[in-house]
């Protein structure tokens, strides 16, 4: 299997440096801009959604700063020159970013659902302090479930070409395989069920509420659409292909097509950092107006007020 994997790596080395390079530029610019707008424009209205979104943006920025390491790694033909410690840190931060993203999107979705389905309860009882507690819990839980990456990840010498590899499992894949199944169920399937249920509830509320404006419906549509894209492109394919790839390695099977698609899914998994600013546009008018300008409906309301 090792020889065959080596034969399949040409596609990976050709694809990922440019893919990570584009994602680094877009994600860094988008999340720095979004975080600045959240802190500056929304500081007078520091509600639960702002707290959760700031944490999501901070998570993206923490991981996006490690992408140059991967760009160099794949540009050198999978040769890791940064040492064992940074290899472990990069793998740990990737896991943290992926699952922090999923759990904060779940929290944002539940928060929006409660705000729309129970507006009076939200105004009376839901406070930013509670969102901060939820944020701390998410960071702790994700940190704990990501800690095994520090054990599994390490550098290894590639006897085929003399390169130093940074990999999460090298010889014994079985423990890592079961660990990844746990992460897929706890870190992806469970949050997806909660997120999907939240959207079903507040879409049904919106459908029955004739007082919701067209602009609000567009914002909700953008929010739902961006989350669907995140799961369809970034989260679900990565988990499915990763588990199937590890299953093949354990059973000493070879399929360059599966290996290639798994490499594409790795690039798409980090694409979530580029999609998050679109989600912020659906949540906050200040970010939407700064990026796209005011809608015709908002302009008409300004004229009427004058």
UniProtKB/TrEMBL annotation:
TM ranges: 20-40, 52-76, 98-121, 133-157, 177-207, 219-241
Lineage: superkingdom: Eukaryota
Domain G-protein coupled receptors family 1 profile: 30-280
Membrane topology category: Multi-pass membrane protein
GO molecular function term, any single one: G protein-coupled receptor activity
Compartment(s): Cell membrane
One Pfam match: 7tm_1
Alphabetical list of InterPro entries matching this protein: GPCR_Rhodpsn (IPR000276), GPCR_Rhodpsn_7TM (IPR017452)
Keywords: Cell membrane, G-protein coupled receptor, Membrane, Receptor, Transducer, Transmembrane, Transmembrane helix
GO cellular component, as recorded: plasma membrane
Main location: membrane
Family (UniProt): Belongs to the G-protein coupled receptor 1 family.
Protein name: G-protein coupled receptors family 1 profile domain-containing protein
